[in-house]
Amino acid sequence: MSWSRISAVDVEPQAWKNGGGTTRELLAWPHAHDWALRISVARVQQDGPFSAFPGVHRWLAVLEGAGLRLFDWPQTVGDEPLRFEGGLAPAAELVKGECQVLNVMERRGNLEMQAATGVLLPTAPWVGLFTVKGGLLEHGHRAMPMAPMTLAWCEQPVAQSCVFTGEGHAWWLTWREEG
Predict the structure, then answer these.
(1) What whole-number distance in Å separates Cα of residue 91 and Cα of residue 62?
(2) Quick one: 27 and 91 in the same domain?
(3) The whole model's pTM is what?
(4) Which member of 86, 93, 152, 157 has the lowest number of beta carbons within 10 Å of its beta carbon?
């Protein structure tokens, strides 16, 4: 029931195959080559199509920069994460220069992503928190400082309240297997 965490600043960026940006993979769970959940922070550096991931549900949230347009829909800092089917491979158009985004992908399950503004009582077998500017994550009687651009996650969490206190945007992520 312990929490793991990783900060994007501690992950070396990897170039996209199409050359349109870079990504810092924070988590590929439960296995890197056979993941059910993948979370990364990406820098979108030029207009162009997203990679196609058929059978994958994706969420995208703009973390910094002026934002981008997907499906003719503008996404900016502070907007609710956009959910879409990964097989669609939408074209991205930058609003004013490059931007940084949180990219959450899941397959073989059911993911919920919500703003970390209230108390979360874990009922799913996997729970995570991503914070843009950092803060403090409390679960039961334990407190864990969170650096900026950090993902924390817990497998089989105890059903005790989770609370995040911090500046800026943060999201709870809960995942459970289908069926």
Answers:
(1) 16
(2) yes
(3) 0.94
(4) 93
